[in-house]
């Protein structure tokens, strides 16, 4: 992947915006292209009552990366919308930053499937998320 692809992807993602929830959770994209997208999220402020990163926070990071990557793949005049997401949590982060790496499993005309692997500061896998997005024509402006 070229630096140009990554910088153009980051510019596209920045211009589009991640949405209020992702911003509130402190998610930041560090790399963005159709082939690979990377984002980080702080553990602090996104924990459950016993101090572990909330399982739903992993899913928000995964859906933010996967849906945005699917929309970049969909292209102008098209829209990707999530139709299925699942997550398997295998370790609990308690501090620091987690990193999600999103890669495509399938990129078609009507369906995009991505896997997002979330690791802790030590590079240990904490969660594996798979998201399926349906790609359709964007609604006409009113």
TrEMBL record:
Domain of life from the UniProt record: Bacteria
NCBIfam families assigned to the protein according to its UniProt record, in alphabetical order: unchar_dom_1 (TIGR00369)
All copies of domain Thioesterase, residue ranges: 51-126
Coiled coil spans: none
Similarity-based family: Belongs to the thioesterase PaaI family.
Organism phylogeny: Bacteria, Bacillati, Actinomycetota, Actinomycetes, Micrococcales
Keywords linked to the UniProt accession: Hydrolase
Pfam families: 4HBT
CDD domains: PaaI_thioesterase
Name of the molecule in the record: Hotdog fold thioesterase
Signal peptide: none
Keyword Hydrolase appears in the UniProt entry: yes
């Amino acid at each position: 992947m070229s630096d140009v692809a990554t910088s153009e992807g980051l510019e596209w993602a920045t211009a589009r915006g991640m949405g209020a929830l992702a911003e509130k959770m402190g998610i930041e994209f560090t790399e963005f292209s159709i082939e690979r997208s990377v984002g980080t999220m702080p553990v602090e402020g996104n924990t459950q009552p016993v101090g572990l990163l909330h399982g739903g926070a992993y899913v928000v990071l995964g859906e933010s990366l996967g849906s945005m990557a699917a929309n970049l793949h969909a292209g102008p005049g098209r829209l990707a919308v999530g139709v299925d997401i699942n997550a398997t949590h295998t370790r609990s982060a308690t501090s620091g930053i987690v990193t999600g790496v999103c890669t495509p499993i399938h990129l078609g005309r009507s369906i995009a499937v991505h896997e997002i692997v979330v690791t802790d500061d030590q590079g240990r896998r904490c969660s594996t998320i798979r998201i399926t997005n349906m790609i359709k024509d964007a609604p006409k402006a009113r």
